[in-house]
Amino acid sequence: MRVLRDAWDYLLAGSSWTGDGGMLELLGQQLLLTVTALLLALLVGLPVALGLGHLGRGGFLAVNISNVGRAVPTFALLAVLVTLGWPGTDAFGPYGRAGIATLLALTLFALPPIITNGYVAVREVPADVQEAAQGMGMTGAQRFWRVELPLAMPLVASGVRLALVQVWATATIAALVAGPGLGRVITDGFYRSQYGQGIAGAVVVAVVALLLELVAAGAQRLAARERRDPLATVTTGHHPTG
Amino acid sequence: MPVTLLAAAASAPAAEPSCYSRLTNEWFCLDYVRDRREEVLDAAGQHLLITVLAVALGVALAVPLALLARRLPRLEASVLGLSTGLYTVPSIALFPLLVPFTGLTMTTVVIGLALYALTVLVRAFLEGLRSVPDEVRESARGLGYGAGRLLVRIELPLALPVVMAGLRVATVSTVALTTVGSLVSYGGLGNLIRDGVTTNFRAELMTAAVLCVVIAFALDALIVLAQRLLTPWTRTRGSTRATRAGRSGRSGRAQEAEA
Fold it and tell me: This protein's superkingdom (chain A) (predicted)?
C-alpha cells in the first residue's frame, strides 16, 4: 500500500502540476486534442451519417463501421501512425509531441459512434411520422430539416457523448506511443518504476473522464428537457474503449 | 558441426537481406512471422488467454448481478449507474488503479478487462430477460414451472439472442483492450506492439496489430456460430428478431445496431 501513499504525495505536490511537462500543461494538451478531434469527427461524420440515413443508403457500412472500429485496437492504430514516416512523432503546436498522429487517430476513433448513431437515429424516425410529413407535401429537404433531424437529435447526442468518452480514453492511450497528454504521467511512472506517480496520473485521468461524462450527460438532459422530446430518454449501449 | 555453422554464416550475408532487417524494415513480412514464430505464438496465446479469462469472469459476475438487479429495481439503477461510470474510465487508467491491490500481474489485466466486459454483459442480460414475452412466462408458470426451472429452461434460452449480441460486443472490445495491458507487461500482442514502436520494428508491429483484429473477428464468428447452434428456432422464420424489436422498441433495435 506504500504506492498509494506515494500517489497521494505526488498529487499533493505542487511541482507535479506546474512547470514544463507538469500535469496542468499535459491536461491542457489532452483537453485541446480531445475537443479538436471531436469537432473534426463531427464535421466529417455527421453529414455522412445523416445524409445516408436520409437517403436510406449505405446502412450496412454505417452500422458495421462500429464493429470494425471496436475490433481495431486504438493502441495498434496509434502505433502505426507514429511509426509511419508521416505524420511521425514531431511536435505540433499546442498539441504537443506527436500531435498530428494523435489527432488523426482520435478523429478516426470518434467517427464510428457518431456515424452509427447518426444513421440509426434518422432511420428510426417512425414510419408513420415520415408518411404524415410526405402526405403534407413536404419535400425531401423539408422532411430532413423539420422532421427527421429534430427527432433524431437525442440519439445523435448520445452518439456524440459516446465519442467524447472514447476520444478522451484514446488520447490517454496515446502516451503508450510517445503521444502528448496526461497518459505520459502514467506511462512514465510505470516504465520508470515510480508506481506512485503512475497511479496518481491514472486518478487524474479517471476523474476528468467522469467529469466530462457528467457534463455531457447534463448537457444532453438539459437539451432534451428544453425540446420536450418524447424520444429523449433513449440511449444506446455503451462500450468501453481501448 | 563448426563447419556447417561457418557455412551458414558465410552464406547468410550473400543472400538478400530479410524483409525485416533494419535496412528494409517492411511493414508486411512473412519471414518475420516464420523466424519469430514462437514469440508471436506465445504473445497470441497470452492474448487469447487474457481475453477468454476476462470474458468468462465477466459472464460469471454478470449473471448473478443481473438476476439480483431484476429482483430489486432500486439496485438496478445503481448497478447500471455504476457500470456507466466504470466504462467512462479509460483502460490505461483502470489498470494502474488496480495495481496496488493485485500488483504487476496478469490478474490486474484480467480483472480490469472483466470489469469492462461486465458493464456490457449486465445490460445485455437485463435487456435479454426483459425481451422474454410475459405471456410465455405465464404459460410456463401455468404448466407448473418453478422459478429456477423457469429461468433455466425458458427465460435464459429466449434471452439468448440479446445476451449473445452483448457477448459479441464484450468479446471484441476485450480483444482490443487487452493490448493496453502491455502497461503492466501482460498485454499479449500488445507487448509486441509496444516493442515494435520503441524499436521502430515495423513487421513486428504490423503482425501483432493484424493478429489482434484476426483474433477479434475469429472469436466473434465463433460466438455467432454458437448462437446459431444454441438457438435453432431463430432461423426458421426470423421470428425472434421481429418479436424482440417489437418488444423492446427503439432501444432494442438501437442496441442491435450498436452490436
Answer: Bacteria
Q: Which residues of A touch B90 (CB under 8 A)?
A: 168-170, 172-173, 205-206, 209, 241
Instruction: Name which of B88, B197, B200, B210 to mutate to probe chain A: the one with the most chain A Cβ atoms within 10 A of its Cβ.
Output: B88
Hey, where are the domains in chain A?
A: 2-227
Q: Which residues span the domain enclosing B40?
A: 27-230
- Cα angle B114-B119-B124, degrees, rounded to a multiple of 5: 115
CB neighbours (10 Å) of residue A9?
13
Is B2 within the bounds of a domain?
no
Nearest chain A residue (CA) to B113 = A240
Dist. CA B184–CA A85, nearest whole Å: 28
Is residue B253 predicted with pLDDT exceeding 70?
no
Q: Determine the distance from the C-alpha atom of residue A36 to the mean position of all C-alpha atoms in its chain, rounded to a whole number.
A: 10
pLDDT in tens, chain A (242 residues): 788 888 888 888 878 888 777 888 888 888 998 999 999 999 999 999 999 999 988 888 888 888 888 888 888 988 888 888 777 777 777 777 777 888 888 899 899 999 999 999 999 899 899 899 989 999 988 999 999 998 998 889 888 988 998 899 888 888 888 778 888 889 888 888 888 888 999 999 999 999 998 998 888 888 777 665 554 444 444 555 55
CATH superfamily of A2-227: MetI-like (1.10.3720.10)
The secondary structure of residue A87, as a DSSP letter, is S
ipTM score of complex = 0.82
CB contact under 8 A, B183 and A186: yes
Query: Are B120 and A4 a contacting pair at CB < 8 A?
Result: no
> Closest partner residue to B213 among A72, A209, A213, by Cβ?
A72
User: How many domains, in total, are found in chain B?
Assistant: 1
Q: Which three cell numbers stand for residue B249?
A: 422498441
Q: Enumerate residues 6+ apart whose C-beta is below 8 A from B228.
A: B234, B235
Do B116 and B177 contact (CB within 8 A), yes or no?
A: yes
